[in-house]
Amino acid sequence: MNTMSRITAHRGVVSLLAVLLAVTSVLATAAPAQAAQGTVTVTATVNAAITISLSKSSAPFGTTLEPGGTDSNSGDTVVDFQSSSSNQGSYYVWKADGSGMTVTVQSNKTWNGTIAASENSGTSSSMTIASGVLRYASTAPTSYAEAAAETAFTTSAAAWQTNHAKGRSAHTFFYSLRVDWDDDPGTFASTVTYQVSQ
């Protein structure tokens, strides 16, 4: 084989290799990617839930109360305000530990709350829930008149929250007890009931 023939043959081999490489490259590029997958189905049921907790379970006003405003001997914080109008005497304000009682509600739905106080089971016949002797507010009163203007407890459930937003919320309560000159001496006892519902 002469030199010219060898060169021609060589060029043919090179051209064939180039074609093979090109085809291989095309095939490699066009080959589909391989993949696999798996699935997990997640299910759960969240129930409606509501809770209520009170920072205090009793409200001791003390045993030394008088229309004239003798200081209370209660272990809790109790202050008093006097009035000299007509038969008005004193309003004693229970502040729990000083900043009021806290009622905490947790609910994952909009909720409503009611409050009621049982009638006085003590010996003072004039100090009745029906007469408005026991009142409540979210801020502490600073005078007899302010205490007398607070919301009076009733023996039937009355709304104190309506369509409250879901979540956790804290509510402060101060109780005010009337001790006037025309109120009968004796004891006072009532149970306040908070109820919340979705």
Observed structural traits:
198 residues; alpha+beta; Immunoglobulin-like; seven-stranded antiparallel β-sheet; 2 helices; disordered N terminus
Write up this protein:
This protein is 17% helix and 31% strand. It has helices at residues 3-30, 144-148; strands at 50-54, 78-82, 90-94, 101-107, 111-117, 134-137, 151-152, 158-164, 167-179, 192-197. It is of the alpha+beta class and 198 residues long. The chain has 2 domains: 1-28; 50-197, Sandwich (Immunoglobulin-like).
Structural class: alpha+beta
CATH architecture of the largest domain: Sandwich
Q: Quick one: overall form? A: elongated
Which segments are poorly predicted (pLDDT under 50) over 5 or more consecutive residues?
3-10, 16-24
